Amino acid sequence: MSRRPEYEPDTSGIRLGPFWLTPGISRGNAGILLFSGFCLICLFTFNAFVQPYLLQEVLHVPKARQGSLIGMLGFVQEVIVILLVSFIGASSDRLGRRVVYVAGVCLLGLGFVVYPLAETELQLFGARIFYAFGFAGASVMLHVCIAEYSQESSRGRWMGTVGFFNGLGVVLMALLLSRLPAWYVAAGFDSVQAIRLSYWTFAAYLLALAIVLRFGLSPGTVNINRRDSSLKVATRGFAEARRNPRILLAYGMAFASRGDLAVLTAFFSLWLVQRGNELGLSAAESTAKAGMLFGLSQLAGLLWSYPIGIIIDRLPRMTAMCVAFGLATLGYLALGQIDNPFGGAPMLFACVLVGMGESSAVISGGVLVGQEAPARSRGAVLGTFSLMGAAGIMLLTFTGGIVFDRFGQTAPFTMMGLVNGVVLIAALILRQREITTAVPVPDRQSDSG
Fold it and tell me: What pTM value is reported for the model?
């Protein structure tokens, strides 16, 4: 397959294996960024994954309310992210990406210190708000740097590799770090001490990561007007979406794909902890078993990350988007049909499929928005993409908690299958429209999928 002219690399940048890096970015900068993604996704997932343990062993929240409470905690966190995203962009424009990224990681570490100290639901919400400030700074800067570090010629493979390292972090959490509370219990600590020591172990690690980022990242910035509010960023971002329907589709992909991992992480563990409690297992034992199965799904996504990146680079873009969200739709619908999570081939198959689908959705959304965002308003488009992702986490986690309590323990996964299905239908319609009209997409390539 011949390379399209607009995908020719800028040779003023340097290569890192199969990737062409943006001019001004070193191999060391790129390596540290991948490492930070590995670490942060691991710890973001840990916090969400062990919440059922925290609710049951520390706060003693009734089982019937746990799903709704987890959903509301996620909702509060993403409201804060949405409110802060323009401030974070403005601060990084004035001070540089590196400074804001390091500050966010330090705040996240402090969040890990205070979060397990909550002894009431009100205190837990207060601790989650504090944690959310660090989460917002670290996660927004991570996604912006990922979008900036790669040239278009190798963006699919770059995003696939980012997905690989992110997935590796989640696999490490699921198969190893999720067992940390159980290890502390085995060492003689009670259940409350065990969960607190687990959080504080990672708080120390986050502070060490901040030092690595301080000396390893490029201090570069992007073109975001530092006075833009979230509303103005979104207005400019949606103005671009009116000119280019692929950008609008990318926003829908952000909404669904960011919600995918949030919903899976929040309710997969809760599902198994509640079922384990019914079977006489402790919260620590159930969390460890959930980690094994969740780890299987993330391992499948990890191994699939680079192949789907290659597929995205080689297939017409809209065809690749349909493949990615087709897998996501099938994966979540399959998981939603499982009755017994503790045994049987159907559960193993569903875990593998949902991991591949989740990885495909995240990578494809990042590729599409990075490709289509025009230089004149790249900051607005990336900012709106982040806002839509935060909105997806906020609304889908909140709704997932409600359907978990009212309709069943696997209802959130069925819900996500339907959400991904809507995006798939939109991608199929846009693909067919481009084939039928053969009209070039504004500002970018004329790939007609």
Answer: 0.69
